[in-house]
Known about the structure:
Layout: H1 16-33, E1 38-42, H2 47-60, E2 65-69, H3 77-90, E3 93-96, H4 100-105, H5 112-119, H6 121-129, H7 132-143, H8 148-175, E4 177-179, H9 185-190, H10 211-220, H11 225-228, H12 242-246, H13 250-261, H14 266-273, H15 277-289
Parallel strand pairs: 1-2, 1-4, 2-3
Amino acid sequence: KVHNVMQDRLDLSIDFKKESERITRFIADSVERRRAAGVVLGLSGGLDSSVAAALCASALSPGRVHVLLLPERDSSSSSVSDAREHAERLGVSYRIEDITRTLEELGCYRDVSSLVARLRGGARAVVKMFPSLARKGFMSNLDGSGGRQFHEFLAFYRIKHRVRMLKIYREAERNNFLAVSCANRTEFETGFFVRYGDDAGDIAPIKHLYKTQVFGMGAFLKIPGRILEKQPSPDLFAGMKDEEIMGVTYDLLDLILDGLSKGMSHEEIERESGIDGHKIRYAARICDLSRSMREPPLSLLENEKTTIR
């Protein structure tokens, strides 16, 4: 649900039937244009990948959709079972590959960050007592601050996404499939993603949808209630939830992002939504800090006049 003080200028409502049809046409057209045999994506048992998989199955037929379940040591066991049941419900082919051994060989579990991840509920309890800790960590991720241990933690967290991306692309290239990114617009505009990890793909069918809209699409597509009712989580460390890490709920964040995207001032958003100005400024700050994550790699190519257009 979205903030109940929403006014006309802040409106996240969409016609999910028409939007699902638009997305499925986009998926089918993209596969045809790239001369691909189908698509492959990672299915985590969470909302975004479940919605993306359902849309792909509708667009192409289940036989042209393959999903990989890629758990590792710190994954929740329920995520795997939820993903498997959803794949079977859609009728798409799937394979489970535990990536723990790969991550072990890369040294992922050798440092202090790995020990923190094992705490799960304990670490989350600390953050609930001191919520500013998680938000401070998220900001440090975006502004490049933090000490050596913090950056080791980022490396520990991000390598898991990137190993999954490698697995998905290997499967795609072996079978002439397109790799599907399950990123949504809220993640993209706030930097709540891993560059060349969960944002990577040949096609991103729900990247234009805010998280609250993905929830609505999931309900329209009749995604299982267990998945819809989960609190969104990276499911990669300490049992933490997205909203605890970012320090703001999705229903408020999406309204703020909608206002910013429409060119509304902070004061206009506050006046029309009733959202506290501190939250609006915070959301605007993380969008600004994460700008570089949305840009291509730095190079001198843009200065060359002979670039082929």
